[in-house]
Amino acid sequence: MNKGDLIKAVAESAGLSQTQASDAVAAVFDSIESTLKSKEKAAFIGFGTFSTNDRPARDGRNPATGATIKIPAKTVVKFKPGKALSEAVN
Q1: What pLDDT, on a 0 to 100 scale, did the predictor assign at position 79?
Q2: Which of 86, 88, 84 is nearest to 45 (CA)?
Q3: Full 3-state SS string of the chain
Q4: Domain extents for the chain?
Q5: Angle at alpha carbon of residue 79, lines to 25 and 21, rounded to 5°
Q6: Nearest alpha-carbon partner for 11 in 26, 3, 20
Q7: pLDDT per 10-residue tile (average), the chain, 90 residues
Q8: How far apart are the C-alpha atoms of 27 and 6, rounded to whole Å?
Q9: Distance CA 83, CA 90 (A)
Q10: CATH topology of domain 40-90
Q11: Distance CA 36, CA 54 (A)
């Protein structure tokens, strides 16, 4: 499923127009993004939790040449599925 498929599914499920569903999906994604940018968790009981983790800078190796390279620090997004989602999938 991609974003377009999600918008169609929301529109059909909630009885909304495609435009309204698109606005709703965009609002949800924007809210999750802004929460993660402020280093907070976005927890949805039964579905899962989005959080961030800071990775420090480190040295790495170029596999083709073997040369040492600097890998910069970055913030990564993590997702831990909730119990209900895990059970629904299995």
Answers
A1: 97
A2: 84
A3: CCHHHHHHHHHHHHCCCHHHHHHHHHHHHHHHHHHHHCCCCEEECCCEEEEEEEECCEEEECCCCCCEEEECCEEEEEEEECHHHHHHHC
A4: 1-38, 40-90
A5: 5
A6: 20
A7: 96 96 97 96 96 96 94 97 94
A8: 13
A9: 11
A10: HU Protein; Chain A (4.10.520)
A11: 12
Tell me what pLDDT residue 18 has: 95
What is the pTM for the complete model shown? 0.81
CA 52 to CA 38: how far, in whole Å?
10
**Inter-residue contact 72 to 81 (CB < 8 Å):** no
Return the number of other C-beta atoms located less than 10 Å from residue 21's C-beta: 20
Q: Which residue has the tokens 């390279």?
A: 69
